[in-house]
Design a protein that fits this description.
about 300 residues, 11 helices, Rossmann fold, binds adenosine-5'-triphosphate, elongated, alpha/beta, Alpha-Beta Plaits, single chain, 4-stranded antiparallel sheet
């Protein structure tokens, strides 16, 4: 479906994408995560043929990205795609359908994107979240095999966001590949069946959300200590990666929870309400990217 082979792209001295090799398969819903500047937008630009790699190759559906787009096989929703100002939503959607080699009916596109009631509104009179829905409508104006979304739900309220993802899930169930970049890790956790973590233009992790959490390897331990805490002793616990003390409540992250808890009892302390839990995707993401930064410094 999509194949990146040793792709690099730099801007001056910045290596935005650094030797990226990646394959996406039909029907996958893939989240692209990474801190600011990790190279997510550049990766999507390369995939859409908006930029050319300095080295390596990008293939989409067996052709160049541009050929795939001209054939209408890729729908895209970019972060800040300008919308024509002086037209109505319906006119814009009709135009997108007219330009698509395999178009849907404009009325269906409007209703799928939940903007039928906005059809006669001028595009420059839309709120931020409504404009995002229009961008989504343009990305799904025809029958594409691959849908690429760069931070699609930015500016959407909770209800709009849920409706958006329900629609996206339908698209994936019909066999389309959906690739989206996001900063909302809970969305990646809930929606993606594959998560890619990009950092300084390289792939740090690639797997299901559960695999990424397991890769982070850390566990959260929390407990209450009656009668005050001895912070220096806690800080010296083995395998500790973070410590947070708030009143009687202690929250720890550990790379070996069993050993840390064992040592905790060894200190003669009596933790109450002890809980040991895995990391959420957000904490796993922070753990993985911070560990990489630490390796580099
Ligand atoms: N047109 C450009 N000219 C120069 N440098 C650029 C350009 N576009 C991106 N960069 C740099 O390339 C790196 C990757 O940027 P990119 O926008 O791909 O990251 P990102 O992961 O999408 O970031 P964000 O989460 O902040 O949107 C950054 O260091 C950025 O400053």
């Amino acid at each position: 479906m999509v194949a990146f082979d040793q792709v690099s792209k730099g801007y001056g001295s910045v290596r935005a994408v650094d030797g990226l090799t990646l394959a996406l398969h039909p029907g996958e819903t893939v989240a692209l995560l990474g801190p600011n500047g990790a190279g997510k937008s550049t990766t999507l630009d390369l995939l859409l043929g908006l930029r050319n790699p300095d080295s390596g190759s990008v293939r989409v559906l067996g052709t160049t990205p541009r050929e795939a787009i001209v054939a209408g096989r890729v729908g895209a929703m970019l972060q800040s795609g300008g919308l024509m100002d002086e037209v109505t939503v319906a006119e814009l959607v009709r135009l997108a359908c007219a330009l698509h080699p395999r178009p849907y009916r404009p009325s269906d596109v409007l209703s799928r994107a939940g903007i039928s009631q906005l059809a006669d509104r001028k595009v420059n009179k839309l709120s931020g979240g409504q404009a995002q829905r229009v961008r989504f409508a343009l990305a799904t104006a025809g029958d594409s095999d691959l849908i690429v979304l760069d931070e699609p739900t930015t500016g959407m309220d909770v209800t709009t966001r849920q409706a958006f993802w329900a629609t996206m899930r339908e698209q994936a169930e019909q066999g389309r590949t959906v690739l989206f970049a996001t900063h909302y890790l809970e969305e990646a956790d809930a929606i993606a069946d594959r998560v890619l973590v990009l950092h300084r233009g390289r792939l740090l992790a690639d797997g299901t959300a559960a695999e990424i959490k397991a890769k982070a390897g850390a566990r959260r331990i929390s407990f209450d200590l009656e009668g005050g805490t001895d912070e220096p002793s806690l800080r010296a616990l083995p395998f500790l990666t973070s410590l947070d003390v708030s009143g009687q409540t202690v929250r720890i992250q550990s790379s070996d929870a069993d050993a840390t808890v064992h040592a905790l009892y060894g200190l003669g302390l009596f933790p109450r309400n002890l809980e040991v839990a895995g990391l959420g995707l957000e904490q796993a993401f922070v753990a993985i990217t911070t560990a990489e930064e630490a390796k580099r410094s």
